[in-house]
Amino acid sequence: MRRPLALSNPELRKLLSAQVPADFADWLDFVAIGALLAFSWNAEPIVFAVLAVSMGLPYLLLGPFAGVLVDRINIRAVLIWSNIGRGLFTASFFLAPDWVILMGLIAARSSVDTFFTPAKQSAIQALTRKAERTSANGLSHAINQASKIVAPAAGGGLLIWIAPQSVFLLNAAVSVLAALMLLRLRNLPRGASDVEEHPPGMFQEVKTGLRDVSIHPVLRPAILMVAASFFAMFFYDTLIAPLTRDLGFTQTHLGLALAAVGAGGVLSAVVLSYLPDLRRPFLWIAVGSFIGGSAVAFLGLTEMRDETIGLIVFISLFGLLGVTSAMKVVPFRTIVQNSVPPNRIGRVTALSEAANTIALLFAPFIGAAIASVTSIGTAFVCGGAVMLLVAIKALTMRNHR
């Protein structure tokens, strides 16, 4: 059986192999943080809301500036030092005496982490030809989705034998391992044509990046579509557990549904990695948004009508959501890498991450408000409707690359 096209690129193989521990480290201590807050410190519910803000807000406030720096600095150096920084701040969790200090340290780690994704996307662009980018982004997304399944499970398993603080030290070592693996990557300096001799100030470059995106005929709608898709997802994401309960399923079934989302995402991303260059990436986004939106709306309507569905159908629908998520993310990243020059991709990627973070910070509260006034199913129907609107917009751009 032939392997994905991107794996024929030896430097890209080095990058992707280092992404495995880097992404694993993002999620390994997720369960440990929750266990420390809930069981060791008996934290109030508001603390978990602060946790979400501590993890997400740096991507909105600092991310665009990190993207500008990524465009100015050697990519390989950013990849290495961002993982070392993540490791150092993760190790410092071990010393946190209370949740207030821990939240500050988590925010600091997220601030360092804002450099990694723009640098990774820059590196994929620098290391690949256009024909390889769909395959490369498919494999990268598969690694990311697999880490969201395996790492929290591994962290939860470790808590059987060791304290949450010890998991933090182990996770720090994983980040350092990623940095060491990235040392094998060849140097990826900016070409002479990509570096401005006297670059403007950081704020000016962020404003320039926003202006460039706002007038670009492909990037602006692409970023807005993906942000809207994340908004739709976060609209109902925190309500999956009560929906599962209201449909008559158990906690075990909830776990299976969430695992199905991750497995679907991995499977779809791997399949995409075997495909040639996507000539109509917006068409893939349209199809993925339509199928995903229909599945979410169906779940919501089922709850609103007080109907029941079989367990196989329930699990399959969530697996389908994972499949369609890759159908949107992988083509989008390929669009960005093919549309943005190397000296701009860091800031464009960071601006996209910031837009997604806005969705993360606001959509769950709107969804919860709608669910409290009407029903949980209504929030799902609203989320599905947003996805269907994205599908319509993407369909109008199906001939763009």
Comma- or semicolon-separated keywords:
mainly alpha
Describe the structure in your own words.
With 401 residues, the chain is mainly alpha-helical. It contains 17 helices and no strands. The longest helix has 29 residues. It starts with 9 loop residues before the first helix and ends in a 5-residue tail after the last helix.
Average predicted confidence as pLDDT: 90
Number of E-type strands: 0
Instruction: Report how far the terminal alpha carbons are from each other.
Output: 29 Å
Percent helix, as a range, is over 70%
Order of helices and strands: HHHHHHHHHHHHHHHHH
Write down the Rg. Answer: 21 Å
Strand proportion: under 5%
Q: Categorize the overall geometry.
A: globular
Poorly predicted ranges: none
* Structure annotation, total helices: 17
In a few lines, what is going on in this structure?
The protein is mainly α. The protein contains 17 helices and no strands.
List the helices and strands and how they pair.
Blueprint (H helix, E strand, L loop, with lengths): L9 H19 L1 H11 L4 H17 L1 H10 L2 H18 L6 H15 L2 H12 L2 H29 L5 H19 L19 H14 L3 H19 L2 H7 L4 H24 L6 H24 L6 H29 L5 H29 L2 H21 L5
Helix pairs in contact: 1-8, 1-9, 2-9, 3-6, 3-16, 4-10, 4-16, 5-6, 5-7, 5-9, 7-16, 8-13, 8-15, 11-15, 11-16, 11-17, 13-15, 14-15, 14-17, 16-17
